[in-house]
Specification:
By secondary structure, this protein is mainly beta. It contains no helices and eleven strands. A hairpin with a 5-residue loop joins strand 4 and strand 5.
């Protein structure tokens, strides 16, 4: 499988918010790595991320109060042709999930509550 890594550096404005984008990509979003800046310019420990497909707004990763570098492997629930979420088990506790897909779209990384003029880097793996 061919995998591309796209680096997105996001700097916040005075209000603590900022946004950055990958170039136009197509494929499955396999992983996203947030790298917290070790310097005084690191996001506040209250930083919130909303990572979506720019054109469709489809959610890829949303998390609040991230305080350290981390890697996530986002997944989206798979649905039947009737629009019903599929489950692995009869009790319905285990949803069937696959990596989110983007097609000729940019991945948007939006940051909130990051602090005044702070920076962080995101590595988006698309395959």
């Amino acid at each position: 499988m061919y995998v591309e890594r796209h680096e997105v550096a996001v700097k916040t404005a005075a209000g603590g918010a900022g946004a950055g984008y990958t170039r136009v990509v197509s494929g499955r979003i396999l992983a996203i790595r947030y790298v917290k800046d070790p310097a005084a310019t690191a996001y506040a420990d209250t930083v919130d991320f909303t990572i979506t497909s720019e054109a469709t707004g489809a959610n890829i990763w949303t998390e609040e109060n991230v305080d350290a570098s981390k890697t996530v492997y986002p997944r989206a629930q798979v649905h039947s042709t009737a629009g019903v979420g599929l489950k692995y088990d009869v009790a319905g506790a285990q949803p069937v999930a696959e990596p989110p897909v983007v097609a000729l779209d940019r991945v948007k990384v939006a940051v909130a509550a990051g602090g005044d003029l702070k920076t962080g880097t995101f590595h988006v793996l698309v395959g």
